[in-house]
Design a protein that fits this description.
Layout lengths: L7 E4 L9 E7 L3 E10 L2 E11 L6 H16 L3 E8 L9 E3 L6 E3 H8 L4 E4 H8 L8 E5 L9 E6 L3 E9 L4 E5 L13 H14 L12 H10 L8 H8 L3 H7 L5 H25 L4 E5 L1 H5 L3 H4 L2 H6 L5 H4 L4 E4 L4 H14 L2
Helix pairs in contact: 1-2, 3-13, 5-7, 5-8, 6-7
Length: about 350
């Protein structure tokens, strides 16, 4: 069974001849990425990644079988362990998951029956939590400098297909952080300023639902919804026509945010809500170890955190500004942090 034609591949180390392989996956509503790692005495080496659009998948166990055969042909090395990071809740036995934004599910028993591989399952932001310590320092940028307090809680959030969140709690016995799964991106959006009440009405109409969540704003679809809500504020333009006709409107909006007034206003609102979500998470967790921002949107556009008053909005609290000013903010720029986290989780759980 060969790889499906809709896979794309990025080779990191094509000359490696590994003795054993970890198979990892980051399964999101838009993209599914497989990472192939070799465990080494010094850590984890990412050999290659395989990418495909999540909406092209109809039978996930068959995809795993296809990947398995491809790796056998390429490396002649067995997959000894696997771990998948999933954008959706996982059952209490950690054997199945229904993806939030896709019509198919993950069933470890079905995968094992076809491939003899039984993967570990993690929430996608749990995986990011495990991945932070596996990244090189260059992949984490400082947004706001404050002194982190060792062994205090940390927290992660990130906008992509939806908004993900996780808290990290230090375990003295194990001597590392344990991330907690969360579906906090589906909580209701916080509205504060007068102009936002009209915006909320527009978003309720757009989504045909009285409840607007953080993920309805802090996501690719959220950027587009914010842009559409501003149509009556700005005259029609060639850029608006380009965005309307584009198969990927959020990418066009972010592309033009430095030159087009409506796109600029859209990113101002997006950044305001992003900072507000980070502030809420920081207060929920008292994350004196730091807040980490992940997700493809932030990694591709780090300038929004300095251009659009992210830090000022993060500090904007009725009574707790003094606490928020003590919390450092970091940006994770490595798109594959979830893959690294899944591989590190294998080391923690299977390689003791």
């Amino acid at each position: 069974m060969s790889l499906p034609l809709h896979f794309t591949q990025t080779i990191y180390n094509p000359t490696s001849s590994p003795q054993k392989i970890f198979l990892t996956a980051d399964i999101g509503g838009t993209n599914t990425t497989f990472g192939i790692f070799e465990p080494t005495p010094t850590g984890l080496e990412l050999l290659l990644t395989l990418h495909l659009a999540s909406n092209t998948i109809t039978n996930f166990p068959h995809i795993i079988k296809s990947v398995q055969q491809h790796l056998q042909e390429k490396y002649n090395a067995p997959i000894i362990h696997a771990c998948f990071a999933i954008a959706g809740p996982i059952n209490e036995n950690k054997t199945t998951s229904q993806l939030t934004n896709l019509p198919w599910n993950i069933d470890t028993l079905a995968i094992e029956s076809l491939t003899h591989i039984k993967p570990l399952l993690l929430n996608d932001f749990e995986a990011i939590g495990y991945g932070i310590d596996a990244l090189p320092p260059k992949d984490i940028l400082l947004i706001k400098d404050s002194q982190p307090l060792p062994k205090h809680p940390c927290a992660i959030l990130g906008a992509g297909t939806d908004l993900g969140k996780s808290m990290l709690i230090w375990n003295n016995q194990k001597q590392h952080y344990f991330p907690l799964a969360s579906e906090g991106g589906h909580a209701t959006l916080a509205i504060e300023q007068p102009d936002e009440f009209l915006l909320l009405q527009s978003l309720q109409t757009h989504y045909q639902n009285s409840q607007v969540t953080w993920g309805d704003v802090l996501s690719g679809r959220g950027i587009h919804a914010l842009y559409l809500s501003l149509n009556t504020h700005y005259p029609a333009s060639d850029i608006r026509t380009t965005i309307t006709n584009s198969p990927n409107p959020p990418a066009q909006i972010t592309k033009h945010h430095l030159t087009d007034p409506q796109c600029t206003h859209t990113l101002q609102l997006f950044t305001r809500f992003y900072a507000r979500a980070a502030r809420t998470l920081a207060l929920d967790s008292l994350a004196f170890g730091g807040i980490y921002i992940a997700g493809g949107i932030a990694a591709k556009h780090p300038e929004i955190f300095t251009r659009y008053n992210f830090t000022q909005e993060f500090h904007n609290s009725k009574k707790m500004s003094h606490l928020l000013k003590q919390i450092p903010l970091y940006l994770i720029t490595n798109y594959h942090v979830g893959l690294y986290g899944a591989a590190r989780y294998i080391l923690i759980e299977k390689m003791k």
